[in-house]
Structure formats: structure tokens, C-alpha cells
Amino acid sequence: MRWQDLVADAPRLAGVGEERLVGPGVVLVGTVRADGSPRISPVEPLLWEGDLWLSMLWRSTKARDLGRDPRVLVHSVVTGRDGSAGEFKIRGVAVSEESRAVQEGYAAEVKECLGWEPDPGHFHLFRVEIDDVTFIRYDEPTGDQYVVRWPLGREFVRRGTTATSLGSPEVRLDLLAPPRGGPDQ
User: Fold this and answer.
1) Which residues of 50-67 are buried (b: 16+ CB within 10 A; e: fewer)?
2) Which CA distances in Å does 173 have to 83, 153, 156?
3) Do 52 and 90 meet the contact criterion of CB atoms below 8 Å apart?
4) Which residues contact 6 (CB under 8 A, 6 or more apart)?
5) N or C: the chain end with fewer CB closer than 10 Å?
6) Sign of dihedral through CA atoms 41, 45, 49, 55?
7) Under a CB-based contact definition with an 8 Å cutoff, are residues 88 and 105 in contact?
8) 40-84, pLDDT tens digit by residue?
């Protein structure tokens, strides 16, 4: 699936994703190293042409990882230990884009939006095909965990039972709804 599918099917979740992934200007990308162990690397994301794009330095180890095994996890940066801002995660496949025309279009968009100039043909460009999106946030006072999944359309809360334990999922359908009296009411 493409980013535009998330926007069409779950616009509030896509809005949270844009805020948490694009807003900070960097995401963490999980890849699989040649020896099978995980690698976590910072990458600058871009939403362009209805897709989530990741560019990487020419011949970087993370790009070589994706050349061997295209499975990827894109994770928002975590800025505090309480978890109240939440974690936004995308699991999918990184599709290498080597077309000169696409790389030139991407480079023009980066120059316009981000202010630097990639050199087409001298960076790795990946379009993320999305398999699964998860947004998790925690409520520190209660220890509750709130979860939204797409495309499953699942929303649930797991109540904190101790400082290190959660209860069974309780189905919810309003986790991304605006507060009562908000602009959509």
C-alpha cells in the first residue's frame, strides 16, 4: 500500500504519522544486516507523490542492507521516556528507485522543501510500500497503552495493571477522534 492509501482510509492516523515522522525531520529505520542482526539508522523522510520516501548516502551500509533484504521498519523518534507523544511505526518493503527522472524529481522536491540538493544518480532512493502502520501512546499516570493499527482498523487500550504489566486489549473506536467540542463536533 502507499502513503496515499493511509491518507484516504485513515486520515487522522495519517495526520499523526505526518506529524511524528516528517515533523522532526528524521526517522529511525530498521534494516537487516548481512549477518542477520538488526541495524537502526537515522534517515530523513519525505512525503512526495503519494508515497513515503527514504534517501540514503551512496553505498551506505543501510542501503546495502535494503538491497539484500528490502524489509524495513520506519519508526518515529522518541523524545521522552513517558511515551505520551507516542510511537509511530511503519512496517513494509523498501523499493529501490533508480530511474533518473524519479531521482531528479525527488531531488527538486528536496531542494524546495528541505533546502539541500541531492545529486541524482549518487544516492539511494527507496519508496516504502506499507504493510502495516501502528501508533502507540502511553498514559503515564495510569500506565495505559493506547494502540491504533492500519489497515486492520483496530483500536484498543490495554490498561496498566502494574508498573510493568498490561491487561488484555479493550476495543475502542475513538482513539484518534477529536476532543468533544472540537472542530469536527
Assistant:
1) ebbbbbbeeeeebbebbe
2) 21, 9, 7
3) yes
4) 13, 14, 17, 130, 133, 150
5) C
6) negative
7) no
8) 999 999 999 999 999 999 999 999 999 999 999 999 999 888 888
Look up residue 27 and give its three cell numbers. Answer: 526517522
Q: At 92, list the grid cell.
A: 513494509
Q: 3-state DSSP call for residue 49? A: coil
Question: Alpha-carbon distance 181 to 158, whole Å?
Answer: 26
Q: pTM above the 0.85 mark?
A: yes
Residue 140's Cα: distance from chain center in Å? Answer: 23
- Sequence-distant (6+) residues with CB within 8 A of 92 are 71, 72, 74, 128, 129, 130, 131, 132
Residue 21, Cβ neighbours under 10 Å: how many? 23
